[in-house]
Design brief:
about 190 residues; mainly beta; four-stranded antiparallel β-sheet; globular
Length: about 190
Protein backbone atom coordinates (compact mmCIF):
# COMPACT_ATOMS: atom_id res chain seq x y z
CA UNK A 1 0.00 0.00 0.00
CA UNK A 2 0.99 3.61 -0.37
CA UNK A 3 -0.05 6.66 1.58
CA UNK A 4 0.38 10.12 0.13
CA UNK A 5 0.74 12.79 2.79
CA UNK A 6 1.06 16.21 1.24
CA UNK A 7 3.54 15.53 -1.54
CA UNK A 8 5.33 12.67 0.24
CA UNK A 9 4.66 9.08 -0.81
CA UNK A 10 5.06 6.49 1.98
CA UNK A 11 4.92 2.85 0.83
CA UNK A 12 3.92 0.60 3.72
CA UNK A 13 2.75 -2.89 4.56
CA UNK A 14 0.45 -3.86 7.44
CA UNK A 15 -0.15 -7.48 8.43
CA UNK A 16 -2.98 -8.42 10.80
CA UNK A 17 -3.15 -11.78 12.57
CA UNK A 18 -6.46 -12.33 14.38
CA UNK A 19 -6.45 -14.98 17.09
CA UNK A 20 -9.40 -17.06 18.33
CA UNK A 21 -9.39 -15.23 21.68
CA UNK A 22 -9.90 -11.89 19.90
CA UNK A 23 -6.31 -10.65 20.20
CA UNK A 24 -4.94 -8.95 17.08
CA UNK A 25 -1.24 -8.91 16.21
CA UNK A 26 -0.21 -6.06 13.92
CA UNK A 27 3.09 -5.80 12.08
CA UNK A 28 3.81 -2.70 10.04
CA UNK A 29 6.67 -1.73 7.76
CA UNK A 30 7.27 1.76 6.31
CA UNK A 31 9.71 2.77 3.57
CA UNK A 32 11.03 6.29 3.36
CA UNK A 33 12.11 7.71 0.02
CA UNK A 34 14.53 10.42 -1.04
CA UNK A 35 11.79 13.04 -0.60
CA UNK A 36 10.76 11.97 2.92
CA UNK A 37 10.33 14.88 5.35
CA UNK A 38 7.45 13.97 7.67
CA UNK A 39 7.66 14.16 11.48
CA UNK A 40 6.46 10.60 12.17
CA UNK A 41 5.71 7.17 10.79
CA UNK A 42 2.73 5.81 12.69
CA UNK A 43 -0.57 4.05 12.56
CA UNK A 44 -3.49 6.18 13.64
CA UNK A 45 -7.01 5.21 14.60
CA UNK A 46 -10.09 6.88 16.04
CA UNK A 47 -11.60 5.22 19.09
CA UNK A 48 -14.93 5.41 20.88
CA UNK A 49 -15.09 8.59 23.02
CA UNK A 50 -15.85 6.44 26.07
CA UNK A 51 -12.28 5.04 25.98
CA UNK A 52 -10.89 8.19 27.57
CA UNK A 53 -9.07 6.70 30.57
CA UNK A 54 -5.48 5.95 29.69
CA UNK A 55 -2.89 4.02 31.67
CA UNK A 56 0.62 3.20 30.50
CA UNK A 57 3.88 1.78 31.76
CA UNK A 58 6.51 3.98 30.18
CA UNK A 59 7.85 7.51 30.42
CA UNK A 60 5.74 10.16 32.07
CA UNK A 61 3.82 11.73 33.54
CA UNK A 62 4.74 14.72 31.39
CA UNK A 63 4.89 14.80 27.60
CA UNK A 64 8.20 13.53 26.26
CA UNK A 65 9.95 12.85 22.95
CA UNK A 66 12.98 10.79 21.94
CA UNK A 67 15.25 13.82 22.29
CA UNK A 68 13.34 15.30 25.25
CA UNK A 69 12.83 12.65 27.90
CA UNK A 70 15.41 13.25 30.63
CA UNK A 71 12.75 14.53 33.08
CA UNK A 72 10.19 11.84 32.20
CA UNK A 73 10.80 8.72 34.25
CA UNK A 74 9.73 5.14 33.57
CA UNK A 75 6.72 4.31 35.71
CA UNK A 76 3.04 3.46 35.79
CA UNK A 77 0.84 6.45 34.95
CA UNK A 78 -2.89 7.06 34.54
CA UNK A 79 -4.81 10.07 33.29
CA UNK A 80 -7.54 11.01 30.85
CA UNK A 81 -7.09 11.72 27.18
CA UNK A 82 -8.16 15.33 27.80
CA UNK A 83 -5.44 15.71 30.43
CA UNK A 84 -2.75 14.47 28.01
CA UNK A 85 -3.26 17.75 26.17
CA UNK A 86 -0.66 20.48 26.56
CA UNK A 87 -1.50 24.19 26.79
CA UNK A 88 0.71 25.79 24.18
CA UNK A 89 -0.05 29.32 23.03
CA UNK A 90 0.39 28.26 19.41
CA UNK A 91 -1.12 24.90 18.54
CA UNK A 92 1.17 22.04 17.59
CA UNK A 93 1.56 18.28 17.92
CA UNK A 94 1.50 17.40 21.59
CA UNK A 95 1.14 14.78 24.28
CA UNK A 96 3.71 12.22 23.13
CA UNK A 97 4.78 9.48 25.57
CA UNK A 98 7.90 7.40 24.87
CA UNK A 99 9.31 3.99 25.72
CA UNK A 100 6.00 2.44 26.75
CA UNK A 101 5.90 -1.27 27.51
CA UNK A 102 2.08 -1.30 27.30
CA UNK A 103 -0.92 1.02 27.40
CA UNK A 104 -4.65 0.67 28.00
CA UNK A 105 -7.58 2.83 26.96
CA UNK A 106 -10.67 2.08 29.01
CA UNK A 107 -14.11 3.43 29.84
CA UNK A 108 -15.59 4.31 33.24
CA UNK A 109 -16.23 0.61 33.90
CA UNK A 110 -12.62 -0.44 33.21
CA UNK A 111 -13.41 -2.09 29.86
CA UNK A 112 -11.47 -1.29 26.70
CA UNK A 113 -8.27 -2.26 24.93
CA UNK A 114 -4.67 -3.02 25.83
CA UNK A 115 -1.78 -2.50 23.42
CA UNK A 116 1.47 -4.36 24.03
CA UNK A 117 4.38 -3.77 21.62
CA UNK A 118 7.32 -5.95 20.77
CA UNK A 119 9.86 -3.93 22.72
CA UNK A 120 8.54 -0.44 23.44
CA UNK A 121 6.26 2.01 21.65
CA UNK A 122 5.76 5.78 21.59
CA UNK A 123 2.19 7.06 21.43
CA UNK A 124 -0.15 9.99 21.78
CA UNK A 125 -3.88 10.08 22.50
CA UNK A 126 -5.72 13.34 21.81
CA UNK A 127 -9.03 14.68 20.57
CA UNK A 128 -7.29 16.15 17.49
CA UNK A 129 -5.22 14.95 14.56
CA UNK A 130 -1.84 16.56 13.90
CA UNK A 131 -3.22 18.03 10.69
CA UNK A 132 -6.08 19.68 12.58
CA UNK A 133 -3.68 21.06 15.18
CA UNK A 134 -1.53 22.68 12.50
CA UNK A 135 -4.57 24.21 10.76
CA UNK A 136 -5.56 26.37 13.73
CA UNK A 137 -3.31 29.10 14.96
CA UNK A 138 -3.91 29.52 18.69
CA UNK A 139 -4.83 27.23 21.58
CA UNK A 140 -8.05 29.13 22.29
CA UNK A 141 -9.30 27.80 18.92
CA UNK A 142 -8.92 24.13 19.89
CA UNK A 143 -12.55 23.94 21.06
CA UNK A 144 -13.57 24.58 17.45
CA UNK A 145 -11.78 21.47 16.17
CA UNK A 146 -12.05 19.11 19.16
CA UNK A 147 -13.37 15.68 18.18
CA UNK A 148 -15.37 13.60 20.60
CA UNK A 149 -13.51 10.43 19.58
CA UNK A 150 -10.02 9.59 20.79
CA UNK A 151 -7.30 9.94 18.12
CA UNK A 152 -4.62 7.38 18.96
CA UNK A 153 -1.20 7.52 17.26
CA UNK A 154 1.02 4.48 17.68
CA UNK A 155 4.43 5.60 16.46
CA UNK A 156 6.90 3.39 14.67
CA UNK A 157 9.34 6.32 14.75
CA UNK A 158 9.02 10.04 15.38
CA UNK A 159 11.48 12.78 14.52
CA UNK A 160 13.04 14.53 17.50
CA UNK A 161 12.03 18.09 18.33
CA UNK A 162 15.44 19.73 18.40
CA UNK A 163 15.32 23.37 19.34
CA UNK A 164 14.19 24.91 16.08
CA UNK A 165 12.21 27.67 17.81
CA UNK A 166 15.46 29.33 18.85
CA UNK A 167 18.23 27.03 17.72
CA UNK A 168 19.09 24.02 15.58
CA UNK A 169 16.84 21.13 14.56
CA UNK A 170 17.25 17.66 16.04
CA UNK A 171 20.58 15.88 16.12
CA UNK A 172 21.06 13.42 13.25
CA UNK A 173 20.35 10.37 15.44
CA UNK A 174 16.82 11.75 16.10
CA UNK A 175 15.98 12.32 12.43
CA UNK A 176 13.96 9.84 10.38
CA UNK A 177 16.39 8.60 7.76
CA UNK A 178 15.61 8.82 4.05
CA UNK A 179 15.71 5.67 1.92
CA UNK A 180 15.21 3.43 4.96
CA UNK A 181 12.77 0.82 6.20
CA UNK A 182 11.21 1.08 9.66
CA UNK A 183 9.19 -1.72 11.24
CA UNK A 184 7.32 -2.42 14.45
CA UNK A 185 4.77 -4.83 15.89
CA UNK A 186 2.20 -4.81 18.66
CA UNK A 187 -0.79 -6.74 20.01
CA UNK A 188 -4.25 -5.35 20.71
CA UNK A 189 -6.42 -7.25 23.15
CA UNK A 190 -9.58 -6.66 25.14
CA UNK A 191 -9.58 -5.37 28.70
CA UNK A 192 -12.61 -6.93 30.41
Amino acid sequence: MEAIIGKVNVPHTITYTIHGNGAIDIKASFKTGTDFNLPRLALQTSLNPALDKITWFGRGPIENYQDRKNAAYIGLYSTTVEDMREYYVRTQSMGERCDSRWLTLTNNHGKGIKITPEGTIDFSAQHYTDRELWQVKYAHDLGNIRRSEVVLNLDCVQRGLGNASCGPGPRPKYEIKKDSVYTYAFRIEEVK
